[in-house]
Amino acid sequence: MRSVDFTNVSVNLDLFKSAIAELPKGEKAGAPFATTLQKVSDGKSYQQLTGRVDERALITAASGMSALGTTQSISAEFEEQLQVNGAVLQAELDWMLGLVQQRVNGDRKPIANPPDLSGVSSPYAALVRNAGLDTFDRLALILSLAPHIKPSLMNVLGGDCFSLGSMKLLVGGGDVTANLGIDKWRDCSALLDPANRIMELVGDPDPWLKITDDYRAMVTIGKLPSDNRRANMPAIKIDTGMTWDDLVVSYQTEQELREVIVAVKNQDLLDKRMAAYAQSKGTSVLMQGTNGTGKRVAAEVVAKELGLDPYLVKSEEILGGGIERAIERLEHLFTRARQQNAALIFDPGESFIGTVDTRGSAGDKIEMALRDCLARLIASHPGLVIVINRAGGGYDGRAFNFDKVVHFPYPSGDERQKIWTQFLENKNVDEQARTKIPLLGRMIELTQSEIVFAIHYAEVAAKGAPIDIEMLFRGCNEAMRKHERGLSGDTLNRLRAG
């Protein structure tokens, strides 16, 4: 992750007065901050540069729509809540950007008070009050949220995230005493309290500020932190409500998933017959494919089909705090999984099973020790373990020998059509848009998660009216822009004419 480096910024932030949309795409994506600002002209507000924090930005920030669920409609009340929360977050961003401008201009005055949120009814304001967040806390929180609610701002600043070093510079302008104040804050902040798990510091030596997934959903769209996180289980129980009938995968993938179910059931029978002679053996599965092709949903469905509770294991739940602590968490995880009839789903898997250079640094050797520990635990675990890996993500074949591998290719045109049909079935869609579903599936290459995102984007844009085809086009374009793609004018013309 590239953290924003304010020490290289010499241009006054008042130049935030031109729309970045006017810049070529290549210049927007990571152009140096000063260079970018020199290219924009005066005369417009910075909100035209970044776009206000509206309901679409909040839904996108809440983990790519997944926090909403796949079938939830957006009511007028929910939309109003998003608008209020967007205004609150916009005010918080304006406060933070004012501080950035101060420091870039060499002004070392003390940090100004953040906006007064007393009496304001919104998810973000509620967290500020309920957690008793002070000024430092609120600065850290909005810095951790900015990449999610205002990614265009990060493009201009020339980084992917804000780090603890970024925060120190904003608080003290380079003053050593102020830096010591941040170190003291780090030790006692409610945000970083393990009991709350609102935020984390990730990486070394200058860790980046990361808001946890649960709280990102809570402060953007008001979804409360999951009550499925168990104090005695370093994983999250998941339940999207999806069933086998909801899966849209290729024939080959479906057969491979069914083979997993048969293998687990056969292993259970064998274990019962051999109980007196040998230790039970579980089943390990690698699910590999492009992001957004339904791997995690498939893992959940397979687990539930076998009568198991699916638990999601993320790297931040296990890693960090030293090798001894990480190994302790892994061993505790597998112990609790045996006791709780749990299927363990590691996602993203590359954080756990990636290749390590055995001749590398001390850090590489620590990672290798963790992989060896995980491989040993998987091999001896009597239950189901699923590791989800992105396409092209290698894994350490020396350590891991999976019983089954399930491949998730990019969805075909027919599969995309089924996905569009399935997720639009209960939506308020006008007739013309419904007749275009076969064309959407055939001509626009999207993954399942991108299609779901496009539909929710269009639903928000419709504001209660029937979704029309142009709204779906815009949703597709937004989904593709997240991966530096977009609908060409020629494609749009053929879709409109078809």
Secondary structure layout plus pairing:
Layout (H helix, E strand, L loop, with lengths): L24 H4 L4 H7 L6 H5 L4 H7 L14 H29 L18 H8 L4 H15 L1 H7 L6 H9 L3 H13 L10 E4 L5 E4 L1 H9 L7 E2 L2 E5 L13 H23 L9 E7 L5 H11 L3 E5 L1 H4 L4 H17 L2 E5 L3 H4 L8 H19 L3 E7 L13 E5 L4 H12 L6 H5 L1 H7 L4 H15 L6 H13 L7 H9 L1
Parallel strand pairs: 5-8, 5-9, 6-7, 7-8
Antiparallel strand pairs: 1-2, 3-4, 4-6
Helix pairs in contact: 4-11, 4-21, 5-7, 6-11, 7-8, 9-10, 15-17, 18-20, 18-21, 21-22
Quick synopsis:
The chain has 498 residues and is α/β, with parallel strands linked by helices.
Number of domains: 3
Structural class: alpha/beta
Which band does the percent of strand residues land in?
A: 5-15%
Form type: globular
Task: Tell me the distance between the termini.
Answer: 43 Å
Helical content class: 40-55%
Q: Low-confidence spans: pLDDT under 50, at least 5 residues?
A: 5-51, 63-73, 226-231, 273-280, 356-363
Strand order of the largest sheet: 3-4-6-7-8-5-9
Oligomer: single chain
Task: Tell me the radius of gyration.
Answer: 24 Å
Count of helical stretches: 23
Largest sheet: number of strands, sense, barrel closure: 7 strands, mixed
